[in-house]
Amino acid sequence: MSAATTDRLPDAATRGEIPGASREPKALRFMKRLPVRILIAVLLVIEIYPLIWILLGSFKTQNEFLNEPFWSLPSSLDPVNYVDAFTTGNLGHYIQNSVIAVFPSLALTILLGVAAGFALQVMVWRGRSVVLLLFLAGVMVPGQMILLPLFTIYYQTGLTGTLWPLIITYTVGGLPLTVFMMATFFRAVPHEIFEAATLDGASIYRSFWSIGFPMVRNAIFTVGLVQFFFLWNDLLIALTFTNSSDLQTIQVGLLNFTGQYGAVQYGPTFAAICVNVFGTLIIYLFLNERVMKGLTAGSVKG
What we know:
302 residues
């Protein structure tokens, strides 16, 4: 081995290179990963293209929808379709009804579900396993089976014609899954913390509000966001219990949106869909980090 070759060996070792090694392994690794990258790119196109198509469609005129190809771009970005959606289409009233029906029921579901999960997992009492199984049984009950009995009960009690049927049904329907998930998250919290608080003189209510509730706040964000999407995107329950246009939520309003104009007006319809879809998407992106923390919080114990 010559002196020049010997002098080059430390530099090559410092750079992490092996003298005489070819570049074929790197190209081979690239070729092995190429199908996965192509698959990811195809999935991104499948996911993103409909959103872009809906967004561009919300700026098209009726003439462009009827006479131009569906992949054509709008001639301008005039927001007149959004104005028509809120004025003629009454979209703002539909959103208001959804907010009134969803957020109170969501708050009740989270409060009752977290309290029930705390009682079933942290507190020790006879029969708690049976109660948890009863809550799990509620998850397996199809919602379609209880719509007719619930409608009869609401009619006999005089609750029809209001948003109370939606609030009550959303709250009760969301409790089984919420209780099960919160019990799972509380299982990951060390019980020694609550035992130490009890020895220090904390009551069960103080342990819940000051210790249990803050320690599962990321899980609460996760459960709350999951339930929010379930309730906000609900169509069946809202369609069953809203007997007038004044009570329709945004999903029911979008179902009958085209009827407001006497003909199918695609531009305002697409604009209303964009407000619904991108509004919920922004909420998810804003809370995405907390959701990821909440999903991993109950995976390990201790």
